[in-house]
Every structure is written in C-alpha cells, then in structure tokens.
Amino acid sequence: MKKRGRKALKDPHHFCVTGGGKHEGYELKGKIWIDGNEGTFLGYGRIALLEKIKQYGSISKAAKSINMSYRQAWRLISSMNRQAGKPFVETQIGGKNGGGTKLTEAGEKAIEQFWRIHKKFKKFLSKEIKNFEI
C-alpha cells in the first residue's frame, strides 16, 4: 500500500547549512540559530515561515509552501511569540474583508536581524576557510 502525504526529505536540515566558499578543495559549512528559554528561538526554518506568512498573509498557505503542517507552524509561531515576549504574528478572524495573518514590527525586525547575523556568519566562514591548512 502506498503511503500518502508529504514526501520526507533525506536531510530535513540541509537548507539550514551555509557555506563560506571553497579553499584548496575544502569548504567550511555551518548552521546558525538563536536559542531562548525553551530551546530554539529563531533559525532558518522559523525565519522562512515568517517570510512566507508575510508573503501569503496566511499561516496555512505559508506552511504548505514550505512543506510544513499547519499545526507545526502554529507551534513555532507560539514558541517565537512566547520567547520574544511580544507577538511576531497577528491573526484576524474573518468578517467582511475575510481573515488573515500579518507580521508585526517585531516579526519584521527579527527577520532583518537574523539575516544580518547570517550574512556575517557566512563572511566569517569564508574568511576562516582561507586559513585552513593541513
């Protein structure tokens, strides 16, 4: 019997890995995330979710676009909101113009800061691989 549902990735974290260029056949790679009181606070996957929410204005569409369940998306959003002490995401219930979801100023700032740190991390990896010798 064929299983239904989403296709599993070989390495679900492969998209989190960043490299810093190659030097003499070697490449320095790494992942970056920010831990909080409950464990992971922000990382590549959580930032991708926030960006997709901004793009689609919907948690379900955002989750689907990154092959994540709606339930898991809500867990991540709740975790980020709790750990930040202020909401990154606000939802509006239906009505005349329909419901929707949007990022708050804090959510926008989190994305901006994460990518700033990520860029510096990538630059660090690139610099350090040039000093690697065997």
Please outline the helices and strands.
Blueprint: E1 18-23, E2 26-30, E3 33-36, E4 39-43, H1 44-56, H2 59-65, H3 70-84, E5 89-92, E6 100-103, H4 105-129
Antiparallel strand pairs: 1-2, 3-4, 5-6
Helix pairs in contact: 1-2, 1-4, 2-3
GO molecular function: cis-regulatory region sequence-specific DNA binding; DNA-binding transcription factor activity; molybdenum ion binding
Organism: Thermodesulfovibrio yellowstonii (strain ATCC 51303 / DSM 11347 / YP87)
Protein name: Molybdenum transport regulatory protein ModE
Give a description of the structure.
This protein has helices spanning 44-56, 59-65, 70-84, 105-129; strands at 18-23, 26-30, 33-36, 39-43, 89-92, 100-103. It has a domain at 38-129: Orthogonal Bundle (Arc Repressor Mutant, subunit A), CATH 1.10.10.10. A hairpin with a 2-residue loop joins strand 1 (18-23) and strand 2 (26-30). It is elongated and about 65 Å long. The chain is built from four helices and six strands; from the N terminus they run ββββαααββα. The longest helix has 25 residues, at 105-129. The model has no long low-confidence stretch (mean pLDDT 85).
CATH architecture field of the domain at 38-129: Orthogonal Bundle
CATH C-level class of the domain at 38-129 is Mainly Alpha
How much helix is in the residues?
A: 40-55%
Biggest sheet: strands, sense, closure? 2 strands, antiparallel
GO molecular function: cis-regulatory region sequence-specific DNA binding; DNA-binding transcription factor activity; molybdenum ion binding
GO biological process, one term: regulation of DNA-templated transcription
Protein name: Molybdenum transport regulatory protein ModE
Pfam families: HTH_1
